[in-house]
């Protein structure tokens, strides 16, 4: 090496350090976007049907009694039941889950005048209360009786399930793949809440949808139950393009893959996606996932991805990076929490991830850096979904832990080579949240938030991303990362636009305002604020075509490339 070369080499080394860190985050971003797209679900299941009462009284307000002296709930219409007497309310002959609530409601009618219409209203109110308590398959009616004693007997008769449950409409999934998740047994009263849980579990697979159908049995106190199912062909292929790449690996991306919704005839879901820049010279990614339901109603998700990137750094530098990762998550659904007009579904999960990255950088054919890292970490997570009549919410806190020292490249030395000060042993906290609120006149407000906290420097694969399509729109991809930070995306969706009566076509338009705050930790500590405004649209043609587009303008010019309006798009066709 000549005497004149060292200054040039020192400048190269300084630039190389920045390029290595930028490349590491670029590799991480490729893997962030690598997961195969989710399959849109079929229509949601209909509510459970209510049995019809054997008789309904006429709407006659003519008083039958000047004052109602007693109300007795009876389990049948036998002579003995219709001669039961009571002063006040007697619900002891009928098994109830919450007898105090039922008795208190009936007590308000004691001493009041009674007519055929008021007695029918009493039966209707009792039916509503029982449904709220999960007793859907119960018939309530006022049978013919002698009221001269001032006491009315109301029959409360549960319908027992007759025979085994049937499946109708199945074409691609076996009857057994449905029935094995139904816990209802013949000969007992159907448990509506439990049946709904079973149906919700079945409908987690987006390639099928089941609803419960009920019909009268062979006797008045029995009912026939069946699963009425709709299915789509369980193999779906897709292809498309978007612009979620980086400037030095080409912003355009093409992708193709498939979803198999009945993998190996088990009802599992297997997905694969190939993703690359159009020339296939700068970025190639393969990814896959496998979801399997376990017999004890837990489920496991396996995932894997491999990516190779060769960024265009000009004629002087030559870089090539390889990254791959494998992961597994074990999910334990927790009890559903029904509330007034709201359902809360919760889930706990444990995840294991292993990520490998290898970045090689050359300067004028001279090797400058060749660093390998292994990330081995545990994730403890919880998710809560709330579904209401006019709004829905989601929140998921996660704790990520890495003990370090679990492999050859899972060491402080290897981590420090990729980012100065990074340690193989770390912990950080993440929070994902969403809320959707219906507004008057057909408007809707959606807000999504991501937050992360770490008090130590992290590798690029573990940092929170702040710019691009899936973060603060209007900024280039992979230009803003932090060890801790918050990203908020606000969207005001406009009323649906009429599309000439086309039932399979939908157009969703919105305006947005995004915010972000990021901070790195360590010697290179700095904070950055991001914000943008813009508008977007999503076009859907049944399940065959989707086009998403947003136009954003950054309000803060503190990120490289944030110099004007930026358009993000994604086009996908599927069959």
Automatic annotation (TrEMBL):
Q: Name one GO molecular function term.
A: protein transmembrane transporter activity
Question: According to the UniProt record, where is the region Disordered?
Answer: 35-55
One protein family per Pfam = POTRA_2
Q: Name one GO cellular component term.
A: type V protein secretion system complex
Top-level taxonomic group: Bacteria
Enumerate the spans annotated as Haemolysin activator HlyB C-terminal domain.
Answer: 224-537
Record's signal peptide: 1-28
Keyword Membrane belongs to the record: yes
Query: Can the keyword Nucleotide-binding be found in this entry's annotation?
Result: no
For this protein, the record's InterPro entries field holds:
Hemolysn_activator_HlyB_C, Polypept-transport_assoc_ShlB, TPS_OM_transporter
Please list the residue ranges that the record marks as compositionally biased, kind Pro residues: 37-52
This protein's UniProt keywords:
Cell outer membrane, Membrane, Signal, Transmembrane, Transmembrane beta strand
Q: Which GO terms describe its biological process?
A: protein secretion by the type V secretion system
What positions does the domain Polypeptide-transport-associated ShlB-type occupy?
87-158
Entry's PANTHER family?
Answer: OUTER MEMBRANE TRANSPORTER CDIB, SLR1661 PROTEIN
Put simply, this protein is called ShlB/FhaC/HecB family hemolysin secretion/activation protein
Organism the protein comes from: Pseudothauera nasutitermitis
- Phylogenetic classification of the source organism: Bacteria, Pseudomonadati, Pseudomonadota, Betaproteobacteria, Rhodocyclales
